[in-house]
Design a protein that fits this description.
The structure holds 2 protein chains of 2 kinds.
Chain A (H helix, E strand, L loop, with lengths): L5 H9 L9 H8 L3 H15 L3 H5 L10
Chain B lengths: L6 H23 L5 H16 L2 H15 L6 H15 L2 H11 L6 H4 L4 H16 L5 H10 L6 H9 L7 H9 L3 H11 L4 H27 L15
Helix pairs in contact in B: 1-12, 2-5, 3-4, 3-7, 7-12, 8-11, 8-12
The chains are: A mainly alpha, B mainly alpha.
């Protein structure tokens, strides 16, 4: 497992992820993200940020599409 | 939560940060405006994706056999895959039947090369199975199983498109069939004797799958499967 790095949580917070609602155990999961995992999460977040807020709101009733 | 989360709980926690983007893309995919035409694109594209599901798992099972009894993950993984292969076999044919029921050419998906956006979703799994470890495929399967159609979706799509119910058999069947698959897979991941690199490989595979599926559904929603992605563009594009 990757060594915990508190800077990872700061990077996630700066990107707008809701780290403030996580428990200590959950924060530990994110603090040990690999570099590849962190990069992917930031890339995924940027896709969401590209979408207008009113369209983002529709995501709560996504309906699923994979199998 | 008390104590350290299980492996599968940690994986789903990471995915909880990723899925809002995928959910937004899927909601945009299913918006009623222009859905009839978009649904045809979805069926063709999903055939390009799903026709690789059983071959991917068969490849992973062969790699497990090559790794043999010295690899403590290979044996249980091969047993899981053998069962899951039979559960998934033939589902790509359902998509072709849905295309025909929607009045579209069911041979269409087999005549043209799947676009890079599909290869970006499926292709890395082949690489990781062959050149790292077949257990990475569990990240891909986790994301597919966790985002199965909702029970109400087929009826909603039929109402919004005016197409016959027979055009939604794949969506309808998976709303029923995939119930429980995700929990079963989570329990299986928790039982596997994974080393830290393998655990990370599953998470990277899962997050990559969310990223690529989000791009894929955004492209289908836009009606544009062939424009170069951000990564493919040159700086002046």
């Amino acid at each position: 497992m990757t060594t915990p790095d508190p800077r990872t949580i700061a990077v996630l917070a700066a990107a707008g992820f809701p780290v403030d609602v996580l428990t200590d155990e959950q924060l530990q999961v994110f603090a040990t993200l690999s570099e590849e995992e962190l990069t992917l999460l930031l890339d995924i977040k940027s896709r969401l940020d590209d979408v207008e807020p009113e369209v983002q709101a529709h995501g709560s009733v996504a309906g699923g599409a994979l199998f | 939560m008390t104590g350290a989360p299980s492996r599968s709980a940690a994986l789903h926690l990471k995915l909880s940060f990723a899925t809002p983007a995928l959910n937004t893309a899927m909601a945009n995919l299913w918006r009623p405006e222009g859905l009839t035409r978009r649904y045809g694109r979805y069926l063709r594209t999903m055939h390009e994706v799903i026709r690789a599901s059983v071959p991917l798992m068969e490849l992973a099972a062969r790699r497990c056999a090559e790794l043999g009894p010295d690899d403590p993950v290979a044996g249980p993984l091969a047993a899981y895959l053998a069962e899951h292969i039979e559960e998934e076999r033939g589902h790509d044919d359902w998509l072709l039947a849905d295309l025909a029921a929607a009045g579209l050419d069911p041979r269409g998906p087999l005549r043209q090369q799947p676009p890079p956006v599909v290869a970006r979703l499926v292709g890395p799994q082949y690489y990781w199975i062959e050149h790292f470890h077949p257990v990475a495929l569990l990240g891909y399967i986790t994301v597919l199983e966790s985002n199965a159609p909702a029970p109400w979706l087929a009826e909603q799509l039929a109402a919004d498109t005016g197409l016959p119910g027979a055009a939604f058999q794949t969506v309808s069947h998976h709303a029923v069939l995939d119930t429980g698959h995700s929990a079963e897979l989570a329990r299986f991941i928790d039982r596997l004797p994974l080393d830290p690199a393998q655990e990370t490989a599953i998470a990277v595979s899962a997050l990559h799958t969310v990223n690529a599926a989000t791009e894929l559904f955004n492209r289908i929603a836009l009606g544009d499967l062939n424009t170069p992605s951000r990564a493919e563009r040159t700086p002046d594009q």
